[in-house]
Design brief:
Distance between the termini: 36 Å
Largest sheet: none
Strand content: under 5%
Number of helices: 2
Shape: flat
């Protein structure tokens, strides 16, 4: 399933690699990015359907 997202020349990342990356993410920055993305999706949807 993960392979559909790209080629992984060194193999698919193990769960502990993914956990290390996840732990370094800043939740407030993720929240801002998510809100910005949702806002963009909503605006695009309104342009198409309103």
């Amino acid at each position: 399933m993960v392979k559909k997202y790209g080629t992984f020349e060194a193999g698919i990342p193990k769960h502990d690699t993914i956990a290390r990356v996840s732990c370094r993410l800043k939740s407030d920055e993720i929240e801002k990015a998510f809100q910005s993305w949702i806002s963009g999706v909503f605006q695009d949807s309104c342009r198409l359907n309103c």
